[in-house]
Amino acid sequence: MSIKTKDHRIIVTGGAGFIGSALCRFLVNGGAQVINVDKLTYAGNLASLASIASNPNYHFIKADICDAAAITEVLSNFRPHAIMHLAAESHVDRSIARSSTFIQTNVLGTHVLLECARAYWEQLQGGSKDQFRFLHVSTDEVYGSLPEDGFFVETTPYDPRSPYSASKASSDHLVSAWHETYGLPTLITNCSNNYGPYHFPEKLIPLVLLNALERKPLPVYGDGRQVRDWLFVEDHVKALTLVLENGRIGHTYNVGGRSALENITVVQRICDLLDERRPEGKPRRDLITFVADRPGHDRRYAIDPTKIESELGWRAQETFDTGLRKTIDWYLTHEAWWRPLRDRVYSGTRLGLLNSETAETTLTKTWPA
User: Fold this and answer.
1) What is the reported pLDDT for 281?
2) Structure pTM?
């Protein structure tokens, strides 16, 4: 039995984050009733949800997915048709400096959520039980690093290389086990690198963009030849909705934008597009600075999204060029959103340095509730 998101009640965990907020906006605007459960760590920002904050179909609850009592209360009061689980610590550099937070949220938090969801699902009756879904949103990083050719597919063996990817691989395995052992109707998606509006400025594209605007150095790890596959966030949330509605229970779907590019190419394109829009003397490519590589840096990621394309009819609508132009134009006109983050939460300093005092102090900052 499929689920239709319109008029259904959906819990989104991590809905104040980058992908989560895009998902909340998409679902609410499509007619779903959404309850956003978010702890509001440094990367959670309710300003990203301002456009739907007053919508009667949207509700926010500040709660930690590790708090079983809080999650049980939300499930009991809201009676959802589905849970879309996005709450996670997600930045590789931060996982290098402080792995315990990633294990706590990504592994233990997912376990708590699964157990609460199982207890809730087991007491449902008839059609309500048949319709319920638990969608776990994960990353292509669980597969490790590819050689110079080939693509990740749903059957690619897991080979995580960082504390972050190891924690996400662990959570994926838990979700699969809860389906196989208890029959919980789960789905998993593994996506490539997202980008777009409302992206917290620690990740490559917004970090480079804002540093370039301020004519600060643009750090590129190693030789810059690492390859990542890029996915516009609005394409991603459409894919998640399709998987929730029509995906086969117990299955994994890889979601990628068919836009694999070297990091140095991405940085150069950002520079060139900013020079077109805000020309300021010397070209911004002159700001590119090669720095010591990240420990354990995977060389190449690339996703084959054939399964979701053929089974569910999803296609990425944005090319990297069209998506990047939209992203840059959004940041240029939304300084009121990103300026407080740069000034009070994360200024753009490097993270992920082993035994780094800078990394440790930056990690302690949180966004005010």
Assistant:
1) 86
2) 0.93
Residue in 64, 89, 93, 141 annotated catalytic = 141
Mean pLDDT of 68-89: 98
54 bridge partner residues: none
β-sheet bridge partners, residue 302: none
- Check if 140 is active-site: yes
Domain annotation for the chain: domains and CATH numbers:
9-262+293-363 (3.40.50.720)
Active-site pick, 42, 120, 143, 164: 164
Tokens coding 73: 């209360």
Please give the DSSP secondary-structure letter assigned to residue 234.
Answer: H
pLDDT tens column, 151-166? 999 999 999 999 999 9
> Token pair 């050689």 is at which residue?
147
Single out the residue of 233, 305, 218, 338 nearest to residue 266, CA to CA.
218
164 in catalytic set: yes
Distances (CA, A) of 210 to 12, 336, 347: 29, 13, 10
